[in-house]
Design goal:
Blueprint: E1 7-10, E2 16-17, E3 26-31, H1 38-45, E4 56-58, E5 64-66, E6 73-74, H2 80-85, E7 86-91, H3 103-120, E8 142-143, H4 155-159, H5 162-173, E9 189-196, H6 199-211, E10 217-221, E11 224-232, H7 235-247, E12 253-255, E13 260-261
Parallel strand pairs: 1-5, 3-7, 3-8, 4-7
Antiparallel strand pairs: 2-6, 4-5, 9-11, 9-12, 10-11, 10-13
Amino acid sequence: MSNSPLVSYTKISPNRTSPRNHVIDTITIHCVVGQCSVETLGNVFAPASRQASSNYGIGVDGRVGMYCEEKDRSWCSSSGANDHRAITIEVASDTTEPYAVNAKAYASLIDLLVDICQRNGINKLLWKADKSLIGKPELQNMTVHRWFANKSCPGTYLYERHGQIAEEVNKRLGATATPEDPEPEQTLYRVQTGAFSSKKNAQAQLAKVKAAGFDTYLVKMGTLYKVQCGAFAKKANATALAEKLKAAGFQTYITTKSGTPA
C-alpha cells in the first residue's frame, strides 16, 4: 500500500492503529478549524495525549502533510469502523462558520483526492448526504465527522460542497455520470452586506460586520469582493439574519451566489 507523492511534509503521529483492518474504500474530509500550516498540524497530532490524528492534512498554503500512513488507521472521525476503511484528510479552515477554506487548500484537496482514488482503485466518488448509507461504499463512499459525533465538522463550507468536490474529482478520474448520482447541490441563501471593487474596502466592511458580532467571510466573484454572512438552505433563516444586520446598521441583500474565498 503506497502513500501520496503529493506529500511535502511528514510527521507520523503515535496516535494510530497499525495496520488498518479494512480495505480503503471511503474518503472522510475534515476541517481543521484553524488556518494553520502542515507543520503546525503535525505538532498538534504529535503528543500521545492528544489521542487524535489524520492520514493527511492540507495547510493554508496548499501544501500536503502526512501524519498517518495509508496502511494504518488514523484516529480522526470518532468511529473506528469508519477510520479503518477511510482515508481521512484535515483541511485548514477559518475558525468560525462556515469554516471556509481558501482557494489553494481547496485545489490541493481535489488533487489529493484524485491521487488517493487512483492509487486505491476508487473509480468514482459518491455523495448523497445520507447518513443511513454509512458502510455502503457502492452507494456512498464519502462520510463526514458530524455523522459520528456531536460536531459540525467538516463545517458548512465543505459539507455543502461535497457534491461539487465529487463532481470535480470524477471528471479528473474520467468517471461518467449515472442516473443514480446525487442531485445537484441545493440552493443556499447568503446575506450580502457589500460588494466592492477594492479588496481593501471590502476588508474594512468585513471588519465592521465582525466587530458587530456577526460571523462573516469574503469572497471574490469576477472583479468584485463580496462580504457575505451565512449559507442557509431555508430563505427564512437568511431573511432573519438580514433583519438582524439591518438593525445593526448594515445594508443587506439576499443572494444565492457566492464565489471563491478571498
